[in-house]
Design goal:
There is one protein chain. 20% of the residues lie in helices and 16% in strands. The strands form 2 sheets. Strands 1-4 form a two-stranded antiparallel sheet. Strands 2-3 form a two-stranded antiparallel sheet. The longest helix has 19 residues. Bound molecules: zinc ion. The site of zinc ion has 8 residues, from loops.
């Protein structure tokens, strides 16, 4: 029998979303506790390669902003103690160990 470990984190454990430019490797950390102006992330602020707005017009700023906001809202909801009938955790990969 093969044992398989699973790893979980609480939504409140997420402090920030990290963006790492695959071209120039500049790293930006977006705290989930703050409102983010994702329009500043349409391109890499260092090398200006496209990040959230692709040359063909496809954009991803709404999805990134919603993801950060929902993590923050969910964390606050769970921390309020009003929803104490369950525990909610996010399962994360164990790859790379
Ligand atoms: Zn870059």
């Amino acid at each position: 029998m093969k044992n398989q470990l699973k790893r979980f984190i609480d939504p409140g454990d997420v402090l920030a979303v990290r963006i790492d430019c695959k071209h120039c490797h500049v790293v930006i950390s977006l705290p989930v506790s703050k409102d983010i102006d994702v329009n500043k992330l349409l391109v890499c602020p260092y090398c200006t390669r496209p990040w959230l707005r692709l040359p063909d017009g496809i954009t991803g700023e709404v999805q990134v902003k919603q993801c950060i906001r929902e993590i923050s809202v969910l964390s606050e909801m769970l921390a309020s103690g009003r929803f104490n009938g369950f525990a909610l955790q996010l399962e994360i990969t164990t790859d790379g160990e």
